[in-house]
């Protein structure tokens, strides 16, 4: 899985070589957006917890001043705990896929290829929030073949 992570890191670096606090806000918002998507497929879109996570995602993606302040002022302890949580999420996400007999590595590579297709002429396309958007050559990942 280390090669996949290197490829993901390369994709982010190609998109934005110099990180800013706004980039961090957008990415945390995107992360919450994906958590909401997972919850929605399990509980349905009308679930109150799903709606709350969607609000949190929008809060960060909108780069609200308070969100920027929070991220700008995290202590070393908070950053360490966040890193631990992110690593645990990679592990548990892999475990969920494995426990549900999904080819998580194959699916991840398919998603990575799809993400690279968002670039136009080798350059990223961004939406109004600064999130990498779907360019003219974008193709959606086809994950059906990765479910056993």
Q: Briefly, what is this?
A:
The protein has 6 helices and no strands. With 148 residues, it is an all-alpha fold.
What does this structure look like?
By secondary structure, this protein is an all-alpha fold. 65% of the residues lie in helices and 0% in strands. Helix 1 (2-15) packs parallel to helix 6, helix 2 (21-43) runs antiparallel to helix 3 and helix 2 (21-43) crosses helix 4. The two termini are 19 Å apart. The mean pLDDT is 95.
Helix content: 55-70%
Alpha plus pi helix count: 6
Indicate the mean pLDDT: 95
State the separation between the terminal residues, measured CA to CA: 19 Å
- From N to C, what is the helix and strand string? HHHHHH
Biggest sheet character? none
Strand percentage, roughly? Answer: under 5%
* Computed structural class: mainly alpha
Strand runs, count? 0
Coarse shape: globular
What is the CA-based Rg, rounded? Answer: 16 Å
Low-confidence stretches: none
Essential attributes:
148 residues, mainly alpha, 0% strand, globular
Task: Please write out the topology.
Elements: H1 2-15, H2 21-43, H3 48-61, H4 65-72, H5 76-99, H6 104-116
């Amino acid at each position: 899985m280390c090669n996949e992570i290197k490829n993901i890191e390369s994709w982010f670096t190609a998109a934005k070589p110099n990180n800013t606090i706004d980039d961090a806000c957008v990415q945390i918002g995107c992360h919450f957006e994906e958590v909401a998507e997972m919850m929605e497929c399990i509980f349905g879109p009308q679930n109150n917890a799903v709606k709350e996570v969607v609000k949190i995602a929008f809060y960060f993606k909108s780069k609200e001043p308070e969100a920027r302040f929070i991220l700008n002022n995290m202590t070393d302890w908070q950053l360490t705990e966040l890193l631990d949580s992110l690593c645990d999420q990679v592990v548990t996400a892999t475990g969920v896929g494995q426990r549900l007999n999904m080819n998580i590595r194959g699916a991840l590579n398919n998603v990575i290829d799809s993400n690279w297709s968002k670039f136009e002429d080798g350059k990223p396309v961004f939406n109004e929030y600064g999130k990498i958007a779907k360019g003219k050559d974008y193709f959606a990942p086809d994950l059906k073949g990765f479910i056993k």
